[in-house]
Amino acid sequence: MKKGFTLIELLAVIVILGIIAVITTPLIMGVIEDARKNSAIQSVNGLLEAGEQYQIEGMMDGTGKKEIDLTSDDLEIKGSKPESGTLLIDTEGNMSIIAKYGNYCIEKKFLEEEPTIVTKEECTIEESEKENMTTKIYGVRRKIEESATTWERIEDSINLKANAIKSQEDLDQGVQNDFDAIYPWGEIESYTYDVKKKEITSWYNNPSKFQFDGSKGEVLTYIPTFYYKRYQEDGYEYILISNKNLEGYTKSDAFSIGRYTMSGDDNAVHSKSGVKPLTNKTIKDFREYARKLGSEFSQLDYHYFIIQLLYLVEYADYDSQAKLGKGYTDSNNTTFISSGECNELGMKSGTLNDDGKHSMIYRGMEDIYGNIWQFVDGINIKDRVAYVCYDPDQYESDKFDECYKEVGYTNTNAEGYITQLGYDKTNPLIGLPIAVSGNSSTYIPDYYYQTSGDKIALVGGRWNDITRVGLWGWAANFASSYMYISRGARLLKTS
Q: Which of 132, 333, 366, 394 is the one with CA 20 to 30 A from 62?
């Protein structure tokens, strides 16, 4: 006959279980809390490492203190974000951080120190230590019918100066460029990227690790997030750039561009110093080569117009050759040169020799014009009307529907030096030539080539185009099947 437990036996078991629970629960909870604490500490370490990786401190070096909200959607940072937190950069470029994760507030003053737990009351930076990042608007404007190449500085750009390097002496002695200390220009920086591990391996501001030659990975230049506005009103065209999301502004997400034009071969393309560019391939070929590096890569596309805006607000002049240098555009040679002539300039803009026989660079983008023409993907042109797609996954030549949308103006049917760019409210970023002349000394002193039919777009100009070259030098006279020794491409990374 089976016999059940007596009441006393059940009570004894319950008591024993209770004793075990009393003993083990604090231990278990302690393990859980320790895990939470360690997770919070690791998150703060991750934020600081990401801050170092993006070289925020290096970009702000010598420009005064800066406060960054770690919860902001605009902060280009990887890893988990805290519930609240602030990253502070002092005048020496040192970083300190305080962040709240759950029940823990973690503080870390420098990279070499260990994080410490602080009380909830201390989970905010003292007001006296803050230097709020105020809204800034940098802009230029120009009469639409104006024939001079210059723009008028407006908003916070008034009285600012921007000069580029034109010689070794300029590099040694320095030239004034107020935008070196202004966001977003001051945070543009080259870095190396391992395409297999999909990680940044070094930044230019860390010279002990950074290499131009590709030994640390593809050499790219990072352009941070900012907001822009291009519009026309009362006979003027305006271009405005802000660090904040203001009404009527469009967000330009952070992206990276090849410091050099693409090199390599059919098996693998690169962006690195000391090699000749890859040419004599079609725009489709380059599109496929870029994708082989990963889904985050494509070739130069509409982001080229972003670069134009950054340049214009900085230098306030359409004559990029006069401001940045002639570039490799007046050569007696019959072909291009290898990359890397501007390595010594680092993140400075300009050239070491402004004789038309040497490369130029704009903020980490060498030969952005000159040396070879570069394809611009995502722009297809049918009988002088441009169709634009903004999704690299859908780029396809000779396509004029679906993601490719018609721009609201017709490009000029003549060739010559550009006198006016088109404007479309629904595509304000896209400015292609709608008028030209034979005069190279006024308006936009860059040349536009065109013809009817289904065409693609190229920018920049080549080694012997002399004055026809510049940031607004466009060629819209070739079919998608076209390839030639003076035509190449540039990598773009958008994630």
A: 366
> In the prediction, which pLDDT does 28 show?
44
Say if residue 472 is in the same domain as residue 398.
yes
Residues 242 and 379 occupy one common structural domain: yes
Q: In which domain, by residue range, is 330 found?
A: 144-493
The answer to whether the beta carbons of residues 49 and 22 sit under 8 Å apart is no
- The whole-angstrom separation of Cα 194 and Cα 208 is 17
Find all residues with CB under 8 Å of 66, minimum gap 6, and list them. Answer: 56, 60, 88, 89, 131, 133
The reported pLDDT for the residue numbered 332 is: 83
Q: Are 318 and 175 in contact (CB under 8 A)?
A: no
Is there a single domain that holds both residue 122 and residue 39? yes
Taking alpha carbons only, the member of 492, 461, 448, 172 closest to residue 327 is: 461
- Report H helices in 276-377: 283-292, 303-315, 320-324
Query: Is the same domain home to 242 and 365?
Result: yes
Answer whether residue 135 is part of any domain.
no
- What are the pLDDT digits (tens) for 232-265? 999 999 999 999 999 999 999 999 999 999 999 9
CATH number for the domain spanning 346: value is 3.90.1580
Place of tokens 């590099």: 171
Q: Which three-class secondary structure state does DSSP give residue 306?
A: helix
The helix (H) or strand (E) run that includes residue 53 is helix 7-53
Residues 6+ apart with CB under 8 A from 170: 350
Predicted confidence at residue 83, as pLDDT, reads 65
Do 119 and 149 fall into the same domain?
A: no
Q: How confident is the model at residue 62 (pLDDT cuts 50, 70, 90)?
A: very low
Chosen domain end from 96, 126, 156: 126
C-alpha–C-alpha distance, residues 241 and 179, integer Å: 12
CA-wise closest residue to 367 among 329, 410, 412, 423 = 329
Instruction: Single out the residue of 116, 77, 114, 113 nearest to residue 99, CA to CA.
Output: 116
